[in-house]
Amino acid sequence: MTRLVATAVAAATVFAPLAAAGPAAAAPPEGACQGTPDPAHEVVAELPWAQQLLDLNRTWPHSTGAGVTVAVVDSGADADHPQLRGKVLRGEDFFLVGNLPGNFDCVSHGTAVASIIAASPAPGVGFRGVAPDARILPVRITDRELSDNGDPTPINPGVVGQGIRYAADHGAKVINLSLSGHGDYRAIGDAVAYAQSKDVLVVAAVGNRAAQGTQPSFPAAYDGVLGVGSLTIGGERADGSQTGPYVDVMAPGEEVLAATRAGGHNYWAGTSFAAPFVAGVAALVRSAWPKLTAPEVADRILATADPAPGGRDSTEYGAGIVDPYRAVTEDLTDAEPLMVPPVVEPPVDHAAVQEADWWSGTSAAAKAGTGLVVLAIVVAAVLGWFLPRGSRRRWYAGRAPVLPDAPGHAETPDQMFLFPKAPGQRHR
Questions:
Q1: Confidence band (pLDDT; 50, 70, 90) for 23?
Q2: Which residues lie closer than 8 Å to 158 by C-beta, 6 or more apart?
Q3: Which domains does the chain show, CATH number per domain?
Q4: Residue 349 falls in the annotated catalytic set
Q5: Which is catalytic among the residues 63, 230, 272, 287?
Q6: Which of 164, 295, 296, 302 could cysteine-pair with 319, CB 3.0–4.6 Å?
Q7: 199 assigned to active site
Q8: pLDDT tens-digit profile of 75-105?
C-alpha cells in the first residue's frame, strides 16, 4: 500500500557531515528521541550559493517577513539555535503522547527547514533565512528521517492532518510541508482544505522520486497548494525532483546550507529544502501586502518567477524560479490586456497615384537625358585628344620605346637547405 513519507526521508541526502563543534544542545524532553539525537555541527561562514542566487539584501529593505507566522510541520525545530533564538514559538508535538512542545528537534530536519525560512543574520556567517523577522510555529509529527536499515520512515497521515489543523488554528499564515507521498489521504486533504478556508497558504515539496517516472505527489497535488521542485547550482532541475502538473515553482534544493539542531550548519539536498525557500518568500509577500489573500499571494509568487530552462508552465519547472525581490516589489494588475486596434487601410487617392506616376516617369526621363549628355562629353574629350595626335603622325601606328634587358632570375631549386648539414649527411 502506498505510504506517505517525508520528502527528506525519501532522498534528503546529507553532504559531507561536518565535525561537531558548537554550543551544547538543548536537551529534548526525556525519552522524546527514538534514536541518538543528531550531534552539533561546525559553523559554516561562507555565503551559500542559494542566498547568492536569491540576493536577499535587495529584498529586505522592502520586507523581512515581520508579523507573519510560518508553521513548519516536520520533526520540530531547535529553538536554541543561535540563528533561531527568540523566534521559534512553543508549538506542539503530535508525534508523542503528552503535552509536549514542538520547539525541539532530534534529527535536524525541521530545524534546517525552519532556518531556511527565518534564520537571523549572524556576524561572520553567510547563511541567513529568507524572511528573518518571521516567526516559526513548530509542529512535530516525526523524529526519524530513516529507519535503522536506511528505508524511509512512514508518517501517520492522521498525525499530519492534526498538525496542519493545529497550525491553521494557531495563527499560521503560511504552512510548510516538506513531505510527500503517492497516496491521496483524506485526513491530509481535508486538513489542507481546512487551512485554506482560514486563508492559509500551503507550500509543499513535490518529492524526490523522479527516477520512478511521473507519479502523483501529495499534498503538492492538492488544489491551491504551491508545489516546489528542486534546483541545482547550475540552474537546472535536480535529477530526483519529480515532474508533473503539481510542480508550480522551483527553488534551490541541492547542496543547500541550513542550520542543524544544537548549533552549526550542514548541507542538505531534496525538495524538502526547496519548499522552505518558497514558504519564506510567501512570508515576505504576506508581510509587504497584508491585504492579499492566500491565493493572491500564490499568484504573485508565480507571476514574478524568473524564466527556467523548461519554459513557463512546464511540468518540470512550473512557472520558473522563485524571485523574492520581484515577488515583493512588482506592481501587478488583474486587468485584461489592452487590445491592439485593427489596422484600417485608407481609401486610395487616385489623383495622388497619377501624380506620383507622372513624377516617376519624369524623373526616369531626366536621368536618361543626363546620362546621354555625360556620354557625349566623354566622347568629345576622347576625340579632342586623339585626332590631333593622329593627324601629326599622318595616321601611322606609333611604336613603344625598347626596354633594356632585365637581369635573369635563377629557378628555385626543388629543395632548399636552410640549416647546415649534419656530419656525414649527403645530398640526394
A1: very low
A2: 187
A3: 4-329 (3.40.50.200)
A4: no
A5: 272
A6: 302
A7: no
A8: 999 999 999 999 999 999 999 978 899 999 9
Which member of 38, 74, 93, 143 is catalytic? Answer: 74
Q: Which tens digit of pLDDT belongs to each residue from 271-327? A: 999 999 999 999 999 999 999 999 999 999 999 999 988 778 889 999 999 999 999
Exposed, middle or buried: residue 6 (CB in 10 Å: 0-12, 13-18, 19+)? buried
Among 41, 81, 109, 265, the active-site one is: 109
Kindly give, in sequence order, each residue whose CB lies less than 8 Å from that of residue 92, ignoring residues fewer than 6 positions away.
100, 101, 102, 139, 140, 163, 166, 170
Higher pLDDT, 342 or 409: 342
Instruction: Report the distance separating Cα 341 and Cα 338, nearest Å.
Output: 9
- Mark whether 248 is an active-site residue: no
* pTM for this prediction: 0.73
Q: Decide if 273 contacts 8 (C-beta within 8 A).
A: yes
In 3-state terms, what secondary structure has residue 7?
helix
Concatenating the DSSP letter of every residue in 150-177 gives: SPBPB--HHHHHHHHHHHHHTT-SEEEE
